[in-house]
Amino acid sequence: MNFSQLGLAPAQVSACESLGYTEPTPIQKQAIPVILSGQDLIGCAETGTGKTAAFLLPIIQKISDRKRPGIRVLVIAPTRELALQIQKNYGELNQVKSNRSLIAIGGANTRTQIAELRRGAAVLIATPGRLLDLSERGEADLSTVEFLVLDEADRMLDMGFLPAIRRVLALVPAKRQTLLFSATMSSSIESLARSTMKQPQLIEVSPRGRAARMVEQTAYSVSQENKTALLLDLLERERESESLEKVLVFTRTRRGAERLSHILKARDHSVNRIHADRSQPQRETALRDFREGRSRVLVATDIAARGLDVDAVSHVINYDVPAAPEDYVHRVGRTGRAGKTGQAISIVAPVDELSMRAIERLTGQEVKRVVPNGFGGLQPVAAPTRTFARFARARSTTVRSFRPRRAR
After folding, report:
1. From CA 120, how far away is CA 263, in angstroms rounded?
2. In which domain, by residue range, is 118 found?
């Protein structure tokens, strides 16, 4: 199947071809016709499968068919990085330059964003906090919105944005097309969908919570005090062989990211870091240096687990095992993208074993365990007798109507 068979106009097909997109991904095959038909949609697919183009291509086509004033498309993203990536993708796919896009994110100059809003834009891509700030100032009129996209909705809920999302929903017209995309699907997402969407189509391209198929996952069991020593050993042992080309290292805290990046820099690693305490220019510089190879290692908190689009990330290393199993799925989804293989390594102290079990239950995949010599590792407790396959939803791509639960 090619893009023209999905109902896309020649302009959108040409945009895909110019970017080297020849065959639509599974989520694009299923979602694009549904969006073109005007139905609400919930799209659930693993990270790195083309969800952004799946909603941008049909939306661009629909707003190009007829001209109207005001903000017609509102895309809400949980992080600045994801919002910037969506705007970049929009610029690449949009052939009608009159349909301007504008980004509204924290950490950027508010006056500049207000000036841009006053110039007019058809597409507004925003993080929840800055969007509400601009709306309360009377600078963001959402009364003309025709398409509302909630991207990485589960992350927005994890970050406590549900009240902000409900306030935004009160500002947009009730008559609209709503699209909700996420890599994981939880009960809280289903609850949000029931309250905000009209008979949405539910598209699941992979079992809920499944980690990327192209990623080899390994867990190293070490003592808590030897985690840094093991990380240094992994990075330095492979430095000569250059097998770790681009390494994304995740920590739980901003302080941990700062500490670790300074340690790696002192050991002559080309490293940068990204977390919420860094300014927007610093974060953009860190991502640019990582993309262009000036930094081999990027240390990040979960702010980078979504929206970070970097080619050829060879390894993701979980220096800290995430507390939320869903975050593990998003972290490892930064590698093994676009058909390439990747490696995900978790450094697991005894205190992290329960979190690893929760991750395995969510993904339905048993993570290979390694006990390295000399790092005080403890042999993990044997896995439960029931197989992990029991937790996986062994089903292929499905498209079905989303039916609200009956009230009890």
Report:
1. 47
2. 3-208
Considering the domain boundaries, does residue 403 fall inside one?
Answer: no
Write down the pTM of the prediction: 0.70
The CATH number that applies at residue 109 is: 3.40.50.300
- CA nearest to 314, candidates 214, 220, 222, 183: 214
What's residue 394's pLDDT?
A: 39
> Residue 178 corresponds to which tokens in the numbers above?
């709503």
Structural Rg of the chain based on CA atoms: 22
Given a cut of 90, is residue 134 above it in pLDDT? yes
The model's confidence at residue 34, banded by pLDDT at 50, 70 and 90, is very high
In a domain, residue 401? The reply is: no
Instruction: Tell whether the model's pLDDT for residue 346 goes beyond 90.
Output: yes
Residues 365 and 221 in one domain: yes
Under DSSP, is residue 368 helix (H, G, I), strand (E, B) or coil?
A: strand
Could you tell me what percent of the chain has a pLDDT over 70? 84
Q: Which of 321, 351, 50, 68 is nearest to 206 (CA)?
A: 50
Find, among 214, 209, 151, 203, the residue nearest to 327 by Cα. 209
3-state helix vs strand vs coil in the chain, percent to 5? 40, 15, 45
Query: Can you read off the two tokens belonging to residue 225?
Result: 């005090």
Residue with tokens 């979190």: 355
Q: Residues 385-389: what's their mean pLDDT? A: 41
Q: What's the residue count for the chain?
A: 408
pLDDT at 400: 52
402 belongs to a structural domain: no
| The token pair that represents 394 in the structure block | 């062994």
